[in-house]
Amino acid sequence: MTITIKKVTTKKELKKFIRFNYELYKNNPYSVPDLLDDMLNTFSPQKNAAFEFCEADYFLAYRGGEIVGRVAAIINHRANETWNKKEVRFGWIDFIDEEEVSAALLKTVEEWGKARGMEAMVGPLGFTDMDAEGMLVEGFDQLSTMSTIYNYSYYPEHMEQLGFQKEIDWVEYKLTVPDKLPEKFVRISELILQKYKLRIKKLKRGEIKKYNYGQRIFDLINEAYAPLYGYSKMTQGQINQYIKMYLPLIDLRMVSLVENEEGELVAVGISMPSLSEALQKAKGKMLPFGWYYLLKALFVKRPKILDLLLVGVKPEYQSKGVNALLFYDLVPVYQQMGFVYGESNPELELNKKVQSQWSAFESVQHKRRRAYKKVF
């Protein structure tokens, strides 16, 4: 039966777009569903500040009356201008294991991009780096995290069969929280503090607004991440959105800041308890009991795994060991809170500076994800 592609035009259809992922991965032990309300906000031009510089449409693939695939077509004009490219992104792509379906979805994105003057397509990518990105190509038997994509192993097979080439890979690490920090690590950290006249700052809730720490953190992330693949600097609207959305949920014990003697922020590390199992139990909904599972994981009975959400170091302090100070501060906190493992966020495979920070810990690279590209 012929595959029909239909653009999402109503909120009812948008909910179907989101829920297709839930249905495709229903009862999958490794997939972690997004919250429906979060996704509705992400796809809304009125709620997502990324639409200040992005345009997008969403498409569903039907066979008969049944949905068999989905994809978002996105142009991040800010990223294209920054990197001097004319690329359309495909994101939030899911499909059953039939090449006719994946081919129809990707062809739709290609035609959508060509009509807007684009010369290539790349993905999976979201609106910005703050969205999940990269198709899983290794680690299909590993539990996903709330900020990454999980997909079946046939996805990359389809991409290769359809002529897409590797653009770039990200790797992820599972880290064991040590019983004790190595003496050498402690000694080096203390020398770095003295040599560069740095200090570790632990935030208090009232200080975030009073001393503008939310703004300062995201300004640092913008500066630290600027050279990374496809990055587009967050606008003030995005920064305001993330401060409002995320900082109230963070346990400040799991945040580490490093300042120089002038009080300038030079490094930040933000982590939190893994919400993967809680989100699986919530099944994409806050009601009736989704909120309970999430709050329990955050504040009552924490899981044994933590997520390393953001690590950023001011460019002039990179390669000076400053990132070690974040874990010099945080590892004792993780020990006290009962964490056993940590999950890194995806790191570009060529970013050896970031990967070298795990050398002091027992770690294993357990996942790999890929962005694919096709030139028109």
Q: Can you offer a commentary on this structure?
A:
The protein is α+β, with helices and mostly antiparallel strands and 376 residues long. The chain has 2 domains: 168 residues, Aminopeptidase; 194 residues, Gcn5-related N-acetyltransferase (GNAT) (Aminopeptidase, 3-Layer(aba) Sandwich). 35% of the residues lie in helices and 27% in strands. The chain contains 13 helices and 14 strands. Strands 1, 2, 3, 4, 5, 6, 7, 8, 9, 10, 11, 12, 13 and 14 form a 14-stranded mixed sheet that branches. Helix 6 crosses helix 12 and helix 10 runs antiparallel to helix 11. It comes from Bacteroides gallinaceum. This is N-acetyltransferase.
Number of strands: 14
**Average of the residue pLDDT scores:** 94
Which fold does the CATH topology of the largest domain refer to? Aminopeptidase
- Give the full name of the CATH homologous superfamily of the largest domain: Gcn5-related N-acetyltransferase (GNAT)
Report the C-alpha radius of gyration, rounded. 21 Å
The CATH first-level class of the largest domain comes to: Alpha Beta
Succession of helices and strands: EHHEEHEHEEHEHEHHHEEHHEHEEHE
Structural class: alpha+beta
Poorly predicted residue ranges:
none
User: What share of the residues lie within helices?
Assistant: 25-40%
